[in-house]
Amino acid sequence: MTALIIDTDPGVDDAFAIALACSSPDVDLLGVTTVFGNVGLAMTTRNALRILALYGREDVPVAAGADRPLVYPHPHRARYVHGEDGLSDRSNLLPERATGVAGTDAVSLLARLLEEAPEPVTIVPIGPLTNIALLLAAHPGARGKIERIVIMGGGIERGNVTAAAEFNIWSDPEAARRVLAEEDVPTVLVPLDLTHRCAVDAAWLDSLAGSGERGRLLVELTATYREFYSRTLGRDGTVVHDAVAMAEAISPGLLATETYAVDVECAHGPARGMTVADRRGAVARELSGVDDGREVAVAVDADLDAVREFLLSRLSS
Ligand code: BDR
Ligand code: CA
Predict the structure, then answer these.
(1) DSSP for residue 274
(2) What amino acid positions are annotated as catalytic residues?
(3) Exposed e or buried b for every residue in 147-180, given b needs 16+ CB within 10 A?
(4) Least confidently predicted of 42-56, 224-238, 278-292
């Protein structure tokens, strides 16, 4: 059983990730915290509540967190990918949750859930890393209760929102740098390079839609998102980035990792938000005399069909 907390900005692929956790009997979902990102905080929070309602999870506490990055204001949103409401303008198809947000903020909820947990917990940040940087800065004692942080973010060879940067990292580079380069918590980074290789096709989406009411609704939520990815991929299908990271969080080792030092470009130039992975190897690093310090596990490969099957079988149940 994996005790797990999701930090999220739903977002279509976030919806798939939350659905995956809810439909996994081996997950103990302790809480969900929300952050600005794909759309504004009020909408990401509303969407998180509704996705949980779809799975009958009135019991999972939800708390809203940061509505902007740590240091620099950042008005960009991803409505052109996820729709005006973050769920392809289909969020009204989802039920309302009777239980609203907890009477506390995201960082306080994260700290309390970690403190109360009898065993270390896996945190799965699938949006900008603002809440997680704040947690680690304000509650250093919480580190000991974190089993792993499994992050969807970054790109090793490419970006998506700019040539160099992936959306989650670019949305708050200073927060991402704190979490990826300055902390000492076991961390897995699931970057764009691999999530794109796990893209799902029309047949996969049809199978999910045919699996039952929840599967049908999840596929409905992809309308705008699927159109964006079908155009960029050049074929009908979509990329469920956050669900790939969630799959690794639930089933450690599903993705193959390599260990790199990863830094984040925080300058205000064309590479802002870029994840810079040092892939020279330990010997070359040592000989160069320049050591980038802390290392994280970066997901670089997987049995791609096994990942797609893992997602489909759980989301269909
Ligand atoms: C990431 O950015 C968001 O748009 C998605 O939800 C995902 O977390 C992919 O770059
Ligand atoms: Ca996301």
Answers:
(1) -
(2) 241
(3) bbbbbbbbbbeebbbeebbbbbbbbbbbbbbbbb
(4) 278-292
- Ligand 1 atom nearest to 78, measured from its CA: 4
| Cβ of 226 below 6 Å from ligand 1 | no
- Average pLDDT for 84-93: 95
Dihedral of the CA atoms 235, 239, 244, 246 (nearest 10)? -150
User: Token digits for 114?
Assistant: 């970690």
Q: Which amino acid is at 245?
A: A
pTM: 0.97
Bridge partners (DSSP) of residue 200 are 238
Q: List the structure tokens of 70.
A: 């740590």
Q: Which two tokens stand for residue 245?
A: 């990271």
Confidence of residue 291 (pLDDT cuts 50, 70, 90): confident
- Domain residue spans in the chain? 2-315
Is residue 172 in contact with ligand 1, taking CB distance under 6 Å?
Answer: no
Average pLDDT across the chain, whole number? 96
- The CATH number of the structural domain formed by 2-315 is 3.90.245.10
Is the CB of residue 110 below 6 angstroms from any atom belonging to ligand 1?
A: no
Tell me how far the alpha carbon of residue 241 lies from the centroid of ligand 1, in angstroms.
6
Task: Based on DSSP, count helices (H) and strands (E) in the chain, helices before strands.
Answer: 14, 11
pLDDT > 70? residue 292: no
Q: Per residue in 178-195, pLDDT tens?
A: 999 999 999 999 999 999
Q: Which two three-digit tokens encode residue 313?
A: 């079988």
Nearest CA to ligand 1 atom 4: 38
Q: Which atom of ligand 1 is nearest to the CA of 10?
A: 6
